Amino acid sequence: MSVRVDVALLSGRSETIEVEAGSSIDALAQKAQALLGVGRSRVANSAGQVLPGTETVQQAGLQTGDVVTLHTQQVEVACARWKCDASAFAAIQGDASVLTWGDPDNGGDCSSIQDRLVNVQKIQASLFAFAALLGDGSVVTWGNPDCGGDSAAVQEKLKDVREIQSNTEVFAALLGNGRVVTWGNPDFDNSSAVQER
User: Fold this and answer.
1) Ubiquitin-like domain spans which residues (predicted)?
2) CATH number given to 2-72
3) Cα 29 from Cα 77, distance rounded (Å)
4) How is the chain split into domains, by residue range?
5) Distances in Å between the alpha carbon of 181 and those of 69, 93, 157, 192, 195?
6) pTM attached to this predicted model
7) E strands within 21-153?
């Protein structure tokens, strides 16, 4: 069974797109991107909720005549580096997953946590590690543990995260309640002194 939905940009331009009810939201987004001539985008329903790309049109509850909005995004690339030589890169892809390349020991390989890197909103890089802020307010890290690639010690505190920042060897997360949680090298910039304040 096919469904016809109107896909609109914030500018007001729109296209009517026909997709199978079993098609993914990502497939709908790709058709809309091609017809509207835009790049990387996410689909939001009439309530403004971003629909997960892996959901089907039917699972998202879309029906013929519904209007959805296509939110375009710039591709975001983060770089972990030593001096001027980049050692690893991470990019948020159109489906809000992450693509990495470069030195596997310094964040260039995220295969061990790839399945957790969904609905990625932002990536920050330290010297040799990465942290990704997900749409549900959680954080996923990978790369060199000495530079923040291992957040296991604070993972339970990394909920309702609103912002992440980094420096050379430390990450900091601002929570919805105003607290800050840090992880990484405890000897660098005395990060343990601001832990959860």
Assistant:
1) 3-74
2) 3.10.20.90
3) 21
4) 2-72, 76-194
5) 34, 27, 7, 9, 5
6) 0.63
7) 41-44, 67-72, 76-82, 85-92, 98-102, 120-125, 129-134, 139-143
